[in-house]
Amino acid sequence: MKRYKAYTLRNYMEIPQVQLHLSEEERFALEVVGHVLPFKTNNYVVDQLIDWRKYESDPIYTLTFPQKDMLLPEHFDEMAAAIRSGAGKPEIKLIANKIRLELNPHPAGQLSWNVPSLEGVKLTGVQHKYRETMLFFPSQGQTCHAYCTFCFRWPQFVGMNELKFAMRDTELIIRYLRSRPHITDILFTGGDPLIMKTKVLRTYVESLINARIPNLRSIRFGTKALSYWPQRFTTDEDADGLLRLFEQARDAGIHLAFMAHFNHPNELQSEAVRQAIGRILNAGAVIRTQSPAMRNINDDAAVWARMWQKQVELGCVPYYMFIARDTGAQHYFAISLEKAWNIFRKAYQQVSGIARTVRGPSMSAGPGKVQVIGVSEIAGEKIFVLQFIQARNPDWVSRPFFARYDPDAIWLDGLYPAFGKEKFFFETEYPLPRKATHGQRPATGLNYNAVMN
After folding, report:
1. pLDDT per residue over 329-346, tens digit each?
2. How high is the pLDDT of residue 293?
3. At CA 405, angle to CA 404 and CA 408, rounded to 5?
4. According to a count of CB atoms within 10 Å of the terminal CB, is the N or C end of the chain lower?
5. Is the pTM of this model over 0.85?
6. Do 229 and 4 contact (CB within 8 A), yes or no?
7. Where in the sequence of the chain do the CATH 3.20.20.70 domains occur?
């Protein structure tokens, strides 16, 4: 088995397939976009997941290689002009950071609403949005084996420390968990926590186990490692130790859950990923799967049905279909809420009951995870029917509410209450900062209807 090798802007020309297939124009576009949005892939993705005979339409190529239209035209032109003019690194970084700040780097109130404090100390590596679940960003896990071009956590990877969540202090985490007895789950996230060496991850996990926090019932790992480097669980030098750590958590009575990111069934085809899934399940963990529905990658009901069915066959539990978040290259990946709903229901119709554990399509928005239940008509008015699957206020969960139908809507901030109401019921506590109406993002004037056709 080959050793892991990462490719970034610094060395991507070492990829034989890039030299063979990509035109000079495509390489330049990759560099332009890669100076703004993070780019990283690796030899497993390049050699085993991408079909280079038709790379332009290959979903994994789109998932991992930056392309021109992932930046808005004015942003692309500004960065391209700087590179062509021979601008130095400080000037390019200044331009890149200016563009990044226009891409809504922290959606859904991540900085303003989600970061808690303990005894006057701000926990900069923690988000606590939902009552039972705390997100933890371990400092050493704030990168990935490869970067997804749609990733809503892209600010973690671009070197702007003021936008980054990270911390090392496990003692503060334990004290916070003890002070919030309603928290039952801790979710290690990033980046990808499973890029950490086992000895590093063990310091965090064993600290939680040894603390014997009575309310801590589950440890979750949000990870793309199964897709991007399954060798982490099979042939890496500390793979066996990692699995023993999972068993240790299980033996301590803690439920261990993998929140595995799979965006296309092609990621499930290799023997390496099948072996990795089997080893994780044998260590006592449960693998739940999730992905956004994205234009140019998986906006097809048959693709989703095939992916869910394959996940079930391998022993995984389909968990969430999300909607592309309002950050980064959303204009490139976004589909309308109505299309997302139609993809979900048509895929749902094609699988048996054991694959229907999946929920969605869902927007992880400021007030919570908002599910699009469907499009309907009441008293002559066409509407969206919505509900919270998760919410900042638990009382909001599973309360249906209604929005005026808009065929161009791609996110919650583009919806308005139906039946002449001025606000949604939850806006007395969480007012929506409406930035988009009728398919438009006012800051750019980009017409999403035109982009998505």
Report:
1. 889 999 999 999 999 999
2. 97
3. 125
4. C
5. yes
6. yes
7. 105-284
